[in-house]
Every structure is written in C-alpha cells, then in structure tokens.
Amino acid sequence: MSYVICKQEKALKGKIVTSIVLLFSFLFLFNQTEPFLPRLILFIITLLIFGFSTSYKISSDFNNQKLFSFFGLSLFSIKLDLDFPDYISVFSASFSLNNDWSTVSALGTKERHNKVVVRFFKGNKNVTVYKTNKYQEAVEKANELRTLLNVEVHNMINE
User: Fold this and answer.
1) Strand order across the beta sheet in which 152-155 lies
2) DSSP 3-state assignment of 62?
3) b/e string for 24-56 if b means 16 or more Cβ within 10 A?
C-alpha cells in the first residue's frame, strides 16, 4: 500500500440543504412555463454541489495531496502540507456549530456533534485527518495510516 485516502465528511446541514435544492431543481426541470436552459443550468449546478467532495491522500513518501472529487471521481488535487507525525491518535471529540445565521436558530443557538477523530500529532501541534461517527471506521483508518507511515497509534477511547 503506497497511500491511504481519508475522505472528509460533509456537514449534516450541507447534506440536507443540497439534497433539498437538488430535489427542487430536478422537479423544476419539468416545469413547462419557464425556459429550459435556465432550468437545466440550475439542475447541473446543484448536481455539481451535491456530488462534490474532498479527501486527503496520505502517501508513504509523505507527498500528500488534497483531492477534489465529483461522485468519487477525482477532478484535481493540490499539495497538502502536513508535518510527519510523531504519533497518531484516535479519540472522541465534540464539535459545536453556531446556528445564529439560519432558520435553525429557532431550535437553539448551538448544535453539538460527537465524532471519532484521527489526528496527527507533531510536538504540540495536531491536524485532524479523518472524522466519522463510527468508532470501528476510525480505528481501521488509523491502523492503515500506522502501517503506511510506521508510527505509533494511541487509541484514547480504549485507554
């Protein structure tokens, strides 16, 4: 194995909003009262947004890349600057988001999500390379990275 792909998870709000807009634009395609070209353009743009994702490609020579993909097909990549880790850590983390900007603010001003994360630690700096809701996925990704980079993994959930 010469590299490991760490797909970055989309935010829940983003998934919901893009799904709704995609559904709306698909239904709008069948509206006969509006010109077809603007309806088609709207659908294509929302499809692009819906299918867009990013991933980190961590390679054994540590020539890392950030991949930009459309429905899993890599479109282009840029160099990802990461320090080679002293160790990798798997632990549970809580992330909060502000809801002040949207109609969701009626449900409360903060939204909290518990995730299991894989982070690279170099000295006192750290970088999150993978986030998931599933503990087993995070452990598997950390073990793949451990094998690839030959560094120690600290599983803070079981310790």
Assistant:
1) 125-132, 110-122, 87-98, 152-155
2) coil
3) ebeebeeeeeeeeeebeebbeebbeebeebebb
d(CA 114, CA 105): 20
Specify whether the CB–CB gap between 58 and 3 falls below 8 A: yes
Rounded distance between C-alpha atoms, residue 157 and residue 117, angstroms: 10
- What is the predicted pLDDT for the residue at 86? 94
Q: Using CA atoms, how far apart are residues 47 and 31, in angstroms rounded to an integer? A: 18
- Read off the pLDDT of each residue in 69-91 and give the average, rounded to a whole number: 92
- Is the alpha carbon torsion for 70, 72, 75, 80 positive or negative? positive
Of 7-11, 24-28, 77-81, the least confident? 7-11
pTM more than 0.85: no
